[in-house]
Amino acid sequence: MNTVQTPTSPLQRNLVKSLLPLGLFGLLALAGCGASPSMSGSTSSESAGAPASAPAAEGALASDSEGSNKANPMGGSNAPGNATAQLIQAASAIPRKIIYNATVDLLADNFTTAQRSLLSLIQKHKGYLSETNIGSTPGSPREGTWKIRVPEAEFSGFMADVVKLGELQTTHTDSQDVTAEFYDLQARISNKQVEEKRLLDHLQRSTAKLSDILQIEREISRVRGEIEQMQGRLRVLANMTSLTTITVTLHEVKGYVAPKPTTFGSQIARSFQSSVDALADVGKAIILIVVALAPWAIISLIIGFPLWRLVRRFYKL
């Protein structure tokens, strides 16, 4: 069995004390060299693993995006936005109610011909005359104004044809959108009709005193009046939107022969002729009166003469 001999002399003990720190330093140095490769290896492995994790994350994001796209084919997941789009689409499908008015001012070569052509156009486009005003002053061309109603579908065609009747001077077209008012009236009428029905049902089932029944009847009358007022306005809007209003004015400027201006001599002759005509009319009236009274005069003589003889004889006696 081998035994370890411990240094016993002072020199040996000093040598051991001197070499011990050097040995410990060497051991620490060797341990550091061994740890550096392992740490660098772990760092490199982490660096190499980073690109692998990045594609994995990108794949996860791509899968989420695909999932959301599959859930919403339009590419959007905002439910209020889709609801707004549906409301806009529904509103655009509602027929619009528009009032069209137009005025056309024309110069016509021949007033009579232009008037006949205008009446033919009205029949062609299924319209009707609402108002007519034709007149002229001595020495001036004739002028006429027609207010015409044609269906909305015929408005463009009529306007295209009417401007061909003469030389166009001015034209004006305006429109008024009453869609909101029209459908609002329809909704209000429906609500009021429901209210009226509810009041009528309550009146039929009511067993209250007379004053309460009279109050219900007054409410029914009020609601019925509001319904009739709104229905009247709705009918007006329906008429104005279904039929357009076109005002056509024709001025005759060519082919018109104005009457000759009157002279003083012609005025004297006209006055004398008027007096003669008036005297002749008076003579005719007198003759007619005499003829009308002749039968009565004959009857008066037949009856009156014997009476006169009788009265005269009576006074002689």
Query: Shape from CA axes?
Result: flat
Structural class call reads alpha+beta
Fraction in helix? 55-70%
Count of β-strands: 5
- Largest β-sheet summary: 5 strands, mixed
Mean pLDDT: 76
Strand content: 15-25%
In the sheet with the most strands, the strands line up as: 2-3-5-1-4
pLDDT under 50 segments (min length 5)? 1-11, 33-77
Q: How many individual helices?
A: 7
**Radius of gyration based on Cα positions:** 57 Å
Tell me the series of helices and strands, N- to C-terminal: HHEHEEHEHHEH
- How far apart are the termini? 220 Å
Compact summary:
This protein has 317 residues and is α+β, with helices and mostly antiparallel strands.
Give the helix/strand layout.
Elements: H1 10-71, H2 79-92, E1 98-108, H3 111-124, E2 128-135, E3 143-151, H4 155-162, E4 167-177, H5 179-205, H6 210-242, E5 243-252, H7 264-316
Parallel strand pairs: 1-5
Antiparallel strand pairs: 1-4, 2-3, 3-5
Helix pairs in contact: 5-6
Written overview of the protein:
The protein is of the alpha+beta class and 317 residues long. It has a domain at 98-252. It is 67% helix and 15% strand. It has seven helices and five strands; from the N terminus they run ααβαββαβααβα. It has helices at 10-71, 79-92, 111-124, 155-162, 179-205, 210-242, 264-316, and strands at residues 98-108, 128-135, 143-151, 167-177, 243-252. The protein has a five-stranded mixed β-sheet with strand order 2-3-5-1-4. Strand 2 and strand 3 form a beta hairpin. Helix 5 (179-205) runs antiparallel to helix 6. The longest helix is centred in the N-terminal third of the chain and has 62 residues, at 10-71. The chain is flat, with a radius of gyration of 57 Å. The N and C termini lie far apart (220 Å).
